[in-house]
Every structure is written in C-alpha cells, then in structure tokens.
Write a structure and sequence with these properties.
4-stranded antiparallel β-sheet
Length: 196
Amino acid sequence: MSLVLDAAAQDLLFREARTANTFTDEPVTDEQVRAIYDLVKYAPTSMNQSPLRITLVRSPEARERLVRRMAEGNRSKTAAAPLVAILSADNEFHEELPHLFPHFPQAKDAVFAERPVREGSAALNAALQAAYFIIGVRAAGLAAGPMTGLDFEGVRKEFLDDDHTPLMVVNIGRPGPDAWFPRNPRLEYEQVVTTV
C-alpha cells in the first residue's frame, strides 16, 4: 500500500529533512511564521488544550541573552540562525478550555483544577504540537534545528514566567553550507511494532 502524500512531499517533510546546523542569512518573515502556525495549529491535543506557546527571539539583545543560556555546542548555531523560537508549555492552558473545548466547558475545573495535573498534560501535549511545528517549518521550505541542550531554568527566568515551561529552542531558516550531519540509523519496523 502506498501513501497518499506524494513522494516529493514525503521527502520534504520526512526522508530528506534533517536537523539544520547552519543557515543562510535570508530572513524568516512574520508572514512565514504565521503561515506555519496556521497549518500546525491543527495538531491533535487532548481535549484540544493546545498548550504550546511560541516566543520568537528577534532582537539582537534577546538573542545574546538566549545564546548565553544555550549549551556550548549550540551557541554558535543559535547566534547565527535567522530566527530562533523558544517553544514552551503553558501550564495555565485550562483558562482557554471553555473556548477550545466548548462541549465540556467544565473541564477547566473538573479535570485541570490541580497544577500538577496541568503541568503533566501541558508538557505532553505541547511536545506533540512542537513536533508538528517542526514539520510545519519544513512544509514552508525552511529547515529547523530543534535543540534541548540549554539551561531550561535560565531560559524560563529570562524569557518566560512561572506559568510556562520551556521545551526546546528551534533555529529556523534556509539551510546554509554543510548544514547536515550524516543521517544516523533509525530503528526498523520490526524493532518498534508489536502486534498483540
């Protein structure tokens, strides 16, 4: 059985896509980011909670502050990328549930009244949305460089607040020279899928 998505799109989104390590200096516009978001906002989340929040780091001052919070091996990539996004989970996502999940508006208090419950759910569902965000960047013809090598608490204090938990930093742009490391092996179907 073949996939419905044509081979070129499969390559763009999956087979040929890699984590970019260098970028050209071509800017990433707000219009491109809006188009990416308008596509990836349809990612599935439990009770449509949609806890992902995106902080775009555009100013030189903010970029400098972020670079200081990155692991040593990620600093030069983050300093040079045309656009950097901090992806975080909003632990107060439940405030939007009456709008986002209108057929069960009580979910805000009935399911998510406790902060630890919200934090766990927000982390899982925002991570799912973050994966869609990376695919959306690829669909826009750009490359993504997602990274978790960073001082998470430092990034939270510097750019977010106590209600947001940073998940990753994503460098975004057109791939530059020698952008790709060799592809690492992947597990095969038989190693992953079990039928019971």
